[in-house]
Design goal:
Layout: H1 3-16, E1 21-30, E2 44-53, H2 66-88, E3 96-103, H3 109-116, H4 122-128, E4 136-141, E5 148-154, E6 165-169, E7 179-187, H5 211-214
Parallel strand pairs: 3-4
Antiparallel strand pairs: 1-2, 2-7, 3-5, 3-7, 5-6
Helix pairs in contact: 1-2, 2-4
Length: about 220
């Protein structure tokens, strides 16, 4: 089956499952130079955003979200990570990841959290991208077209500072008031020219041993 047909099949399954996806938005960037020099390890960063109808608009704050989460979140996890893997050349090439949600103004922040903060999404994104770390995240409620900065860190070693980085996510006409934008992001490498050390090599820093600096 061709790549295009595979994508169409995944989209069809999402629609059949009751996920109303209005559009998918893919963004990829490569930093060619930083501070006048090419990175020692050139990396691609990408984000994939699904614009979906918020199934809980108009419900009360006491509404149980779990039933719809179990149906919607796993399929979104598969759809978004498949696109990241295709865009970045395979899960084995991906070194850092992140996730995010932007809720339209008629919804609750909890509606976005329901789609990205449970095992139905997070555990599957981690598995599909072959990671082990907890996935860092961002979520907000916003008007259509607002930008969200999605944080990422190393998919296996969250304390690896070289991979602390972000990617911008924005869909020009989303989310509408009754929509949620669900985002998965990844990078194939570290920031350009990382050189601030790591926890494995850090000295033990406390307020007491920095007393002279802090006074």
């Amino acid at each position: 089956m061709t790549t295009v047909r595979c994508m169409q099949e995944r989209n069809r399954k999402c629609i059949e499952a009751g996920i109303e996806i209005r559009k998918l938005s893919l963004y990829r960037e490569e930093i060619v130079t930083e501070a006048g020099a090419a990175p020692a390890r050139p990396a691609y960063r990408a984000s994939v955003a699904a614009v979906v109808t918020n199934p809980w608009v108009g419900t009360s704050a006491a509404t149980d979200l779990s039933g719809a989460v179990g149906e919607i979140a796993p399929r979104l996890a598969k759809l978004l990570t498949d696109r990241l893997i295709e865009t970045l050349g395979g899960a084995v090439r991906i070194e850092a990841f992140g996730k995010a949600a932007i809720v339209g103004t008629a919804g609750e922040i909890e509606h976005g959290g329901a789609l990205i903060h449970t095992p139905y999404f997070g555990n599957l994104v981690r598995e599909f991208l072959q990671g082990e770390s907890i996935i860092c995240f961002a979520d907000t409620r916003a008007e259509a077209g607002e930008e969200l900065i999605v944080p990422m860190w190393h998919k296996e070693h969250a304390a690896t500072r070289s991979h602390y980085q972000t990617v911008s996510a924005r869909v020009a006409d989303a989310p509408r008031a009754d929509e949620i934008v669900v985002i998965a992001a990844a990078s194939t490498g570290p920031r350009p020219h990382p050189r601030i050390g790591d926890r494995a090599t850090d000295p033990a820093i406390t307020a007491q041993n920095l007393e002279a600096v802090l006074s």
